[in-house]
Design brief:
230 residues, mainly alpha, 12 helices, elongated
Length: 230
């Protein structure tokens, strides 16, 4: 059983709203059911971010957040409640960020899932991008990291190989290789599937890996040409 499937199974009991914030506005203690509720709410509110929830949005949500027979009823009810408005999504993002603060790869998986929902109708609107940018900020991703994640989904700045790898042009060859290996290890399809990426999204995993390999090859080739010309 994958990580995400295990998580949703652990939250099988009917859940209420996640733990209330403390006096400082920080999320309270998180149990598995509360975390599932936060993830479901984020996905539902992502589906609503462009103003309406279409069948494609619902189908995309189901592809990302797969539930077993014990969980699907309660998850569906909570989804229907959460999708009525985008209000409050920042709170749920903070709950997810707190739980996975030591696991940035899991947070990026959540971002991938939200992008998948946003792209369900083939277009990412400005409102949806603002939603995704805010969640990314709450998750602690830098502007460059968000640009890299966005490029993997909608192709913006996809012609910048340095952006794809999340590095500056001044990086040394040795550090470039290390950055490439880190990205390749974190985004290898086998690793992403092991973290619980649904089979329906295997194409995304392969696409991200292909972009990383292509970016590294382009940089290496460009640097080789520069050295030969000197």
């Amino acid at each position: 059983m994958s990580f995400w499937q295990s998580l949703f199974s652990a939250g099988a009991r009917l859940f209420g709203p996640p733990a209330s914030p403390d006096v400082h506005g920080r999320p309270g203690p998180i149990d598995e059911a509360g975390l599932v509720a936060a993830l479901v709410a984020l996905g539902a509110k992502m589906a609503k971010a462009d103003g309406q929830v279409r069948r494609e949005d619902v189908d995309a949500f189901k592809q990302v957040f797969q539930a077993d027979r014990r969980t699907e009823g309660s998850i569906a009810r909570f989804f229907d409640l959460a999708r009525q408005t985008t209000l409050g999504y920042e709170r749920y993002a903070k709950i997810v960020a707190k739980r996975f603060r030591a696991r940035p790869a899991a947070l990026e998986d959540v971002m991938d899932g939200l992008f998948h929902i946003a792209l369900a109708d083939g277009v990412v609107t400005e409102d949806e991008l603002n939603f995704l940018q805010t969640v990314s900020d709450i998750f602690g991703f830098s502007e460059r990291e968000f640009s890299r994640i966005r490029a993997a989904h909608i192709g913006r700045a996809g012609d910048d190989p340095y952006l794809i790898l999340g590095v500056d042009e001044s990086i040394s060859d040795a550090d470039l290789k290390r950055a490439y290996r880190r990205q390749a290890a974190a985004n290898h399809p086998d690793r992403m599937m092991a973290r619980g990426l649904p089979a329906e999204l295997s194409g995304l995993a392969n696409h991200k890996m292909a972009m990383i390999n292509k970016a590294y090859a382009e940089i290496c080739a460009a640097r080789a040409r520069e050295k030969a010309a000197q």
